[in-house]
Amino acid sequence: MPDGARPPAEALIEAGRPRHPDLHLAGDMLLLSERAAVYGLRPDQAALLSDALASGTATEALARFGLDAPAVTETAEGAGPVRALALTVSQSCNMACGYCYAAGGSFGGPEGRMTETVARAAIDRLLAATPPGGAVKIAFMGGEPFVARKVIHDAVSHARRRAAARAISVGFSITTNGTLLTEADAEFLAANRFAVTVSLDGGRAVQDRLRPMRGGDGSFDRIARALAPLLARQDSVSLSARMTVTPENLGIGAAVADLGALGFHSVGMSPMLSSPTGRGALGADEFPVLLSEMVSMGEDWLQATLAGQPHPFANLATALGEIHRGATKSFGCGAARDYLAVDAEGDLSACHRFVRDPLGAMGSLQDGIDDAARVRFLGERRVEAQDGCRSCWARRLCGGGCHQEVLHAGRPACDFVRGWLSYALGAYGRLIDARPDWFDAAA
């Protein structure tokens, strides 16, 4: 695609539809699906392969290049040692976002907070199963986790003390709405080298409409004031903004600009596919609009990067890094595989989105991890077991998507995902030709 050209979303969606389960051609970039291997083709080779895809002779055409496209194969990837925990320290929230996957922070049950006893027990179990010299990650989630500030501080202190005794490295992260942050919190997060994700949906008008406080007041100005001490410490925290995209805020370009102006160096977009309230989920009419917006932002990011300038849009950078690494996926994330969530009562689930959801129940701190449930869950969710995934060229890049969303909403976004990844493959070819050094820095 020529510099600056932006193919219509409909064209990208059409181009991304599977023509062969084991390979995909995006311009002159060839993806061999099962290996997640990418090759740059000469124009004559790309034309030959495009014709071969149309005529059903792609396998023979590949052989002329000295390549083959292996079909989907079973992998050994499955349940392994748990090395990451999400502590749902607060099952309550001070905001009233209508689309909240956690049903207002309570996950469909009574509000509650984790005790220090439960948090310590979860951490002790994680560290006891980790060999000396290993590494673990602990995430603090909600609801709004800073409702339970005292538990967070105690958990971090406990984890550091116990981990140090066994030479285990421990990393911390937190996802917050940002409304309760203080100067002391910013100092604490920086001192402990947290990765901090702030949930924001855009500038003042969009944020106040979609993410109001419980009493109905706007939240943007409150968050902007609270974030200032943290934004000033971005040399000590990994700070990013996460925007949930609904039919009400499809104009992500304005959101990226507004959140970049607020001081964020990284802004990521996450489409809303499943909502417990039925509000906010994207439908068929919205996905092409979102794809157009994503490509537009991708082009802006690409042009800035080619010019050596920073740009906060994170989605393309993430996709390009994964394409470059060539790591194949059987799953979209580590849920149930090496990562579990613990709720306020000490029950375990596949991830933080499955709190109080029987579809992702994985035991309890009292009774132990239900490894049989983990194995069963992963066996059913791997891409090799999904009919739609087995025939999709994007399977090893996508990994089948979010388990919780797929189980509750199906796969409404596959055309969108393929269109975006097809665009990203083309962008990869352009960037690696012009700025191969970017991939060294991103590794």
Task: Report on this structure.
The chain is of the alpha/beta class. Among the domains are: 84-282, Aldolase class I (TIM Barrel, Alpha-Beta Barrel), CATH 3.20.20.70; 339-409, no CATH class. It has 17 helices and 15 strands. The chain has helices spanning 9-16, 43-55, 58-64, 116-128, 149-165, 183-191, 204-210, 220-231, 252-262, 286-306, 315-325, 371-381, 387-390, 395-398, 403-409, 414-434, 436-442, and strands at residues 23-26, 29-32, 37-40, 84-88, 90-91, 112-113, 135-141, 169-176, 195-199, 238-245, 267-271, 339-342, 347-349, 361-364, 368-369. It has a ten-stranded mixed β-sheet. Strands 1-2-3 form a three-stranded antiparallel β-sheet. A two-stranded antiparallel sheet has the order 5-6. α6 links the parallel β8 and β9 (195-199). The longest helix has 21 residues, at 286-306.
Reconstruct the topology from this structure.
Layout: H1 9-16, E1 23-26, E2 29-32, E3 37-40, H2 43-55, H3 58-64, E4 84-88, E5 90-91, E6 112-113, H4 116-128, E7 135-141, H5 149-165, E8 169-176, H6 183-191, E9 195-199, H7 204-210, H8 220-231, E10 238-245, H9 252-262, E11 267-271, H10 286-306, H11 315-325, E12 339-342, E13 347-349, E14 361-364, E15 368-369, H12 371-381, H13 387-390, H14 395-398, H15 403-409, H16 414-434, H17 436-442
Parallel strand pairs: 4-7, 4-12, 7-8, 8-9, 9-10, 10-11
Antiparallel strand pairs: 1-2, 2-3, 5-6, 12-13, 13-14, 14-15
Helix pairs in contact: 1-16, 2-3, 4-5, 6-8, 10-16, 11-16, 16-17
